[in-house]
């Protein structure tokens, strides 16, 4: 599915897309195209990218590329796929009742789930909020466990 | 369209055809003509192209067309055979010639477009357009394909064709995405050492593509039928493999619908039960089988293929590589400049409002070709709030940079004194 969306492989590309997306939500999916859950997520993203194109831009980042390792570390990505949201180069958090508010881990169940999440983030950001609460019911949010190494 | 343009041209020099009243009032009045760049009728005559609004919309007009050409240029560099089902989908509207170029009868991707862009007719129209609407003759080469590049492309195409003839059907190295993905999946499932499982999972994955399902349905149905038996009979399969397969059927609930014709519901429920039993407590509904990755150290990259140094061929044509991610840039800019009025209505307290305004100005200046000094460099990092972040978000970045520095230092320190020596027992002495 990944060939339907822009795939970024270098830090410079990621920088430029973050810096050039203005007054729109930027959705960055960190993952690898061959992973099965990534395939599900990419399918949802590719199908809904057009629907949300007025207020969001969707791009994929290949975590296997050595050039983006600095971002993989900076965003603390340990599970794939991880989806990170930006607005005007500011990171947007979402409280979805999971361990990590800074990113969405796992796939979305349906197109509408993704659209809802992006819309909630966009509305929150336009009101000046850096964190929004997840509009989805808890059974539609993928669960995962984080293990902390140096805490 | 072409006729209309030439008509208006011929009538331009002699404004006598205008009504007398107009002539009397203003001698400089020209006849109305349509500017395709500004999409409006005006009576300013040839001086229209110097109007500020026109130059602005001309630059967005040209940049939009250039972003469309970037695809064509990509296929010019590496020609790929065009599949029949894609042929009708790709088409290019040449704004200079007012012609629609479709790829129905070409055997290579963007073949007709490349032919058109290299043609003399296109060059003539392009020059006419630039003369009429301004924009400078120096950018002629941006919107056409040079003879040398064209002959290179033709040569490559010929060699590809001869390969195709000798090497059987469909050599397409990178074109065959479905097969590539398939291999990747099989690779990941090989770890579970149960080939029957990968067979069982396949049909769900195929579902992202209706074409595949409709054409290759039958053999898979046979596999699916066998699938529950495999589960029940073979008790030696590790529980990990089992969770994988059952999760797949859970998470892809939405797509399962059309597969139901093949599955009988009894066997499905059997699979579910099997999955539940072995999975035990982890069978909460939202759970997905997520792959864990180990972080690589980017510091090691010094000059090897395996360590991921910049390959020499990237360094040569970096501009072409850059043009792909820059595509959304022009898109956002176009939309920005089109509805400038809208930005005034945006909430001034929205996230990053000050940054957005500053960046917008910077990008406009960059587009005009001026050099902007900004705080951006290769080590730039966006604002990010970590999981344990407290206080200002800048602290996340500072902490990260600090950590990176210490890691580098520790590495450089620890690497120096360590020497590997054979173990010598101390008791011997």
TrEMBL record, chain A:
Superkingdom classification of source: Eukaryota
Keyword Transmembrane helix in record: no
Keyword Hydrolase attached: no
Principal location class: nucleus
GO biological process: mRNA splicing, via spliceosome
Family annotation (Pfam families): DIM1
Localization annotation: Nucleus
One GO CC term, this protein: U4/U6 x U5 tri-snRNP complex
Keyword annotations from UniProtKB, A to Z: Cell cycle, mRNA processing, mRNA splicing, Nucleus
Task of the protein: Essential role in pre-mRNA splicing. Required in cell cycle progression for S/G(2) transition.
PANTHER family attached to this UniProt entry: THIOREDOXIN-LIKE PROTEIN 4B, THIOREDOXIN-LIKE PROTEN 4A, 4B
Quaternary structure, from the entry: Homodimer. Interacts with the U5-102 kDa protein subunit of the spliceosome.
Family: Belongs to the DIM1 family.
Protein name as annotated: Thioredoxin-like protein 4B
Native organism: Rubus argutus
Classification of source organism: Eukaryota, Viridiplantae, Streptophyta, Embryophyta, Tracheophyta
TrEMBL record, chain B:
Spans through the membrane: none
Listed Polar residues bias regions: 8-21, 232-255, 265-305
Region Disordered, annotated ranges: 1-28, 232-305
InterPro entries: CCDC84-like
Protein name: TITAN-like protein
């Amino acid at each position: 599915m990944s060939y339907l969306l822009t795939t970024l492989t270098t830090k410079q590309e990621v920088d430029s897309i973050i810096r050039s997306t203005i007054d729109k939500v930027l959705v960055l999916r960190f993952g690898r195209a061959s992973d099965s859950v990534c395939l599900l997520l990419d399918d949802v993203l590719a199908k809904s990218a057009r629907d949300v194109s007025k207020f969001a831009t969707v791009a994929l980042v290949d975590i296997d590329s050595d050039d983006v390792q600095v971002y993989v570390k900076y965003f603390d990505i340990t599970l794939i796929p991880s989806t990170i949201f930006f607005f005007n180069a500011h990171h947007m958090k979402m409280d979805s009742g999971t361990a990590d508010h800074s990113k969405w881990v796992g796939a979305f169940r349906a197109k509408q789930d993704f659209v809802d999440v992006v819309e909630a983030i966009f509305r929150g950001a336009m009101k000046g909020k850096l964190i929004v609460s997840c509009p989805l019911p808890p059974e539609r949010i993928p669960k995962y466990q984080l293990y902390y190494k140096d805490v | 369209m072409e006729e209309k343009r030439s008509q208006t041209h011929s009538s331009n020099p002699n404004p006598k055809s205008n009504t007398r009243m107009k002539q009397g009032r203003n001698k400089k009045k020209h006849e109305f003509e349509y500017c395709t760049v500004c999409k409006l009728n005006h009576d300013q005559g040839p001086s229209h192209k110097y109007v500020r609004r026109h130059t602005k919309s001309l630059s967005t007009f040209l940049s939009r067309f250039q972003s469309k050409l970037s695809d064509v240029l990509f296929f010019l560099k590496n020609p790929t055979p065009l599949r029949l089902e894609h042929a009708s989908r790709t088409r290019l509207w040449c704004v200079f010639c007012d012609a629609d170029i479709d790829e129905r009868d070409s055997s290579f991707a963007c073949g007709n477009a490349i032919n058109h862009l290299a043609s003399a007719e296109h060059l003539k129209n392009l020059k006419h357009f630039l003369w009429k609407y301004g924009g400078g003759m120096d950018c002629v080469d941006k919107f056409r394909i040079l003879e040398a590049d064209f002959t290179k492309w033709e040569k490559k195409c010929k060699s590809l064709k001869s390969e195709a003839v000798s090497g059987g059907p469909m050599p397409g190295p990178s074109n065959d995405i479905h097969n590539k993905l398939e291999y990747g999946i099989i690779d990941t499932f090989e770890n579970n050492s149960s080939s029957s499982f990968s067979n069982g999972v396949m049909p769900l994955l195929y579902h992202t593509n209706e074409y595949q399902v409709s054409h290759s349905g039958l053999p898979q149905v046979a596999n699916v039928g066998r699938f529950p038996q495999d589960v029940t009979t073979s008790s030696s399969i590790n529980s990990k493999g089992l969770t994988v397969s059952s999760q797949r059927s859970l998470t892809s609930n939405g797509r399962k619908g059309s597969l139901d014709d093949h599955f009988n519901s009894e066997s499905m429920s059997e699979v579910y039960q099997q999955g539940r039993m072995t999975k035990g407590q982890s069978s909460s509904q939202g759970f997905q089988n997520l792959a864990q990755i180990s972080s690589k150290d980017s510091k090691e990259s010094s000059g090897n293929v395996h360590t991921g140094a910049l390959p020499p061929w990237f360094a040569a044509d970096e501009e072409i590589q850059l043009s792909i991610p820059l595509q959304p840039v022009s898109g956002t800019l176009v939309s920005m400049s089109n509805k400038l009025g809208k930005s005034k209505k945006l909430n001034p307290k929205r996230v990053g409002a000050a940054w957005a305004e500053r960046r917008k100005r910077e990008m406009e200046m960059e587009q005009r070709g001026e050099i902007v000094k900004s705080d951006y460099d290769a080590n730039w990092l966006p604002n990010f709030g970590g999981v344990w972040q407290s206080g200002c978000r800048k602290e996340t970045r500072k902490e990260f940079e600090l950590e990176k520095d210490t890691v580098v230092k520790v590495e450089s320190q620890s690497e120096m004194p360590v020497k590997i020596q054979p173990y010598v027992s101390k008791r011997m002495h």
